[in-house]
Amino acid sequence: MLRAILIGPPGSGKSSVGKALSRELSTSFADTDELIAEREGKSIPEIFSESGEPGFREIEKEVVLNALKSNYGVLALGGGSILIPEVREAIPASRAQVIFLRVGISNVLARIGAKGDRPLLSADPETQWRKIFEEREHIYEELATVEIATDNRKPFEVARDLVVRMGLSRA
Ligand code: S3P
């Protein structure tokens, strides 16, 4: 049963908190960016450079909608997946807790580093991140059933806090 969905901007800690939360709940975890890369046999930057953002979103739509119907216990969504109308409809329909991970720019810059694996942030990470967060913040807020800040906190601390706040327990 899908119990928790993690949403939030790039660098908010969706994958690391999601993994920690799935450990706390003794359940499975999946990250839709990883599912996309596995399905396509290509990295996310390769998909962006070959098919552009629209091509990436088409693939993302299918993968996220399938993942929301599958049996993962905890699911981390790519930060931009909530731009897809069908995904915005399917998230509440899943009846899982929807966790919005909030983060400030200084933590983001430290986390995303110079890895170059986020095509939408590769030119000027700070300006681009601020812009996409400004565009998306209200969507994350509207979808969330719980919101938590991850700044300067370890994934397991955030995960334990979530278990208490959401009244979740081990499967
Ligand atoms: C994107 C976020 C990325 C990835 C892709 C696009 C976005 O995932 O799906 O690079 O539009 O914000 P993370 O949120 O895991 O970085």
Percent of residues in β-strands: 5-15%
Tell me which ligands are bound.
Answer: shikimate-3-phosphate
Instruction: Find the CATH superfamily.
Output: P-loop containing nucleotide triphosphate hydrolases
Number of strands: 5
Could you spell the SSE succession in H and E letters? Answer: EHEHHEHEHHEH
CATH topology, which one?
A: Rossmann fold
Largest sheet: 5 strands, parallel
Q: Helical content, roughly?
A: 40-55%
| Quaternary structure type | single chain
Strand order of the largest sheet: 2-3-1-4-5
Tally of individual domains: 1
CATH architecture label name: 3-Layer(aba) Sandwich
How far apart lie the N and C ends?
9 Å
What does this molecule look like?
The protein has helices spanning 14-24, 32-40, 44-69, 85-93, 105-112, 125-143, 155-166; strands at residues 4-7, 29-31, 74-76, 97-102, 146-149. The protein has one domain (4-166): 3-Layer(aba) Sandwich (Rossmann fold). It has a 5-stranded parallel sheet, with helices on both faces. It is globular. The mean pLDDT is 94. It has 171 residues and is α/β, with parallel strands linked by helices. The N and C termini lie close together (9 Å). α1 (14-24) packs across α7 (155-166), α2 crosses α3 and α3 runs parallel beside α4. The structure holds shikimate-3-phosphate. The site of shikimate-3-phosphate has 11 residues, from loops.
